[in-house]
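Report of the visiting student (M.T.), summer placement. My assignment was to run the structure pipeline on a short list of targets and document each run. The first record concerns Aldehyde dehydrogenase.
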Amino acid sequence: PASPPDWHARAAGLQVDGRAVIDGQRQDAADGATFDKHSPIDGRRLGAIARGQAADIDAAVRAARRAFDDGRWSRQAPAARKQVMQRFSAAVLAAADELALLETLDMGKPIAHALAVDIASTARTLAWYGEAIDKIYDEIAPTPRQALALITREPVGVVGAIVPWNYPLIMTAWKLGPALAAGNSVVLKPSEKSPLSALRLAEIALEAGLPPGVLNVVPGYGHEAGEALALHMDVDALGFTGSTRTGRRMLAYASQSNLKRVYNELGGKSAFLVFDDCRDLDRAAHTVADSVFFNQGESCNAPSRVLVQRGIADALAERITARAARWQPGDPLDPRTRMGAVVDAGQLRTVLGYIDAGQAQGARLLSGGRQARTETGGCYVEPTVFAGVHNRMTIAQEEIFGPVISIIPFDDEADAIAQANDSVYGLQAAVWSGGLDRAHRVARALKAGTVHVNQYDEDDITVPFGGVKQSGNGRDKSLHAFDKVTELKTTWIRI
Ligand code: NAD
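After the run finished, the structure tokens were exported:
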């Protein structure tokens, strides 16, 4: 990787193009409106971004529909779509430095993580779905009559995608991978807090051979461009990733418009259970700290509720606090930095507000708790650990989306399960125990889309990702993601 001054020099020379990508062209908003985007790393102005409105969304949906109907992508042989997806993936890797820089400047994550995780994972996702598409077979039903009943999958048509700012490229790739590989056209609305990388990605897709109109990206605010996309009468399915509050609205928009299919990937407050027969307390502590503080705590699946058996609570807390020291915020453009800036001043205030609430409600602050690097003009928070938390406290119930760990004691297995499931969320959970029977029993009892046993950091595009309860009803990743962007069609043939 380049040395720190190189990244600063590149950042200083960066020319941001904030125009939408519609029908293969860069375009201003129809009324010329823009909004200013600033970087959370030091407050610098990055540029003017097109402020998409209903007219721009409508133009993008029309382009997507035309592209779908003309069949240049939707009716291409799977092997041909696969080639383009693979070129697209390779082009993402070729543009790794540029995309990583956009990601870091836009939302504050360390450049080293943007390169190693965000870019790598985005490229792998696109290639993996491209690779999958010519290996999926349709079905023939075993009907009792003299007939063939073919059950085939068809692309739904125009897929709308609305994504958050915490992993702008990865969240985009999770929506694009299956939707494009299956032959759909897409209109994507990135978060107003992190629109830059998705706009560049749309250009890269065109350069890789994706026909114009198949992927359109319209930046703008949620209540303007986002709402217009979710309400549009010609969008067949809507993939949403974001907060539970906004996910609720997506279902309302669908019911107010054309009953489009909505698949929601929402918030989390994942529980990490450590029993006193845990064989490696050091590793448990390191895994918690590393999983929560990675990406400044802005991960939907961060295991931010640590439930620990009372007898080992102090020992675990001590180890987590020691590990937290390794996550001091630094300059995101320095490749040695592990923790960067939170996404903006509003998020900074939200996180500090939760830390105040934790103290006011009687939780014990073991480390961190303050704003950091104030001299930079950026939005930094110290890695923060609370012990003695009660599961009904605000910091244990609400998603903080910042670098804050809450350690909550439990008495026995039943108490651990009850507290873990006492949440409106159900995204992920972990069980750390040396007992095989206990690990299985507890994993089965936990209400979560994913349960980790004696680990947390494994993840791969091959497995589904999604939640239960108010964490959503979708499943991104894996072959199961095709279910959301395809329709089953039955064709009876008399023989
Ligand atoms: P958010 O709900 O505020 O915004 C998400 C997206 O929705 C943005 O693009 C925003 O502009 C848009 N939006 C907002 N209001 C809208 C409206 N009225 N109509 C249409 N669109 C609207 O969420 P956020 O703050 O960007 O992201 C953080 C949340 O995302 C957290 O809750 C996090 O847990 C969740 N998340 C979930 C997953 C997952 O896979 N389950 C992954 C990443 C993030």
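The longest helix spans residues 111-132. The mean pLDDT is 97. I thank the supervising group for their guidance throughout the placement.
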